[in-house]
Amino acid sequence: xxxxIIPVLDSQKANKVIKKKIEEKDFPxxxxxxxxxxxxxxxxxxxxxxxxxxxEDKAKTIVASLTIAITLILNLSKIIEGILEKYxxxxxxxxxxALALLSIIYMLMxxxxxxxxxxxxxxxxxxxxxxxxxxxxxxxxxxxNIKQNLIRNNIIYTSYKxxxxxxxxxxxxxxxxxxxxxxxxxxxxxxxSYAANKTIAYETSAMKWLLENKQKDFSxxxxxxxxHLNGENGVKNIYSNDEKLxxxxxxxxGRYIILDIKGNVEEITK
Length: 270
Known about the structure:
Blueprint: H1 2-5, H2 8-24, H3 38-73, H4 77-86, H5 92-118, H6 135-178, E1 199-202, H7 204-212, H8 221-229, E2 235-240, E3 245-252, E4 255-262
Parallel strand pairs: 1-4
Antiparallel strand pairs: 2-3, 3-4
Helix pairs in contact: 2-6, 3-5, 3-6, 4-6, 5-6
């Protein structure tokens, strides 16, 4: 599961084992090698070379696609702004920022890995000119190139996984953006959004009261209006004699934070 979230770890681990086998030439030599036709060995060698070219073409295609994808991701600001207005919940901005950042990181990881295929792992094990008729040399270099192609394939597959993870993050953002849902006044008897230009966040204790008292006809708008009648900003306790509610409100960073709500509070008169 962890390897699906950070796929590059599994790829590096597997490629480390393969590179060690390449360095040590850790592969068996067939006992009947002398019986195999030289032409067959050369054809196999050429096929592996063609596979190398195909893998590199895939890497180039991914790099070209990622440049477009990252440009689109960087233009998500309007979509994110719309989501934050649609869901005025605490930490929603942190969640959306994290998803967008992860999407960019995954895309960059995929691009870096594909460039690695084209540069760092652009290794070719060639048969020396004076050994072109040596079956053992042809076979050994073919096996080395097969293992090098495994490294390329692992990296490209890992880049696909990174692109998939980036796409998942983007899909979550887009679903939140297009979801036909809007918190409006008198939603299940609870007014959560007072006005389009006023963002309201609820602390845990206040949200707990709201969830436990959904049946009550509660409107936060009147409390916010009373908040401004009391003068300067800061933490204020607003009491409603009609509803017997004591609401603690703070205005901070352009939003109203409902710190706490207490019900069945009787006013003490002197």
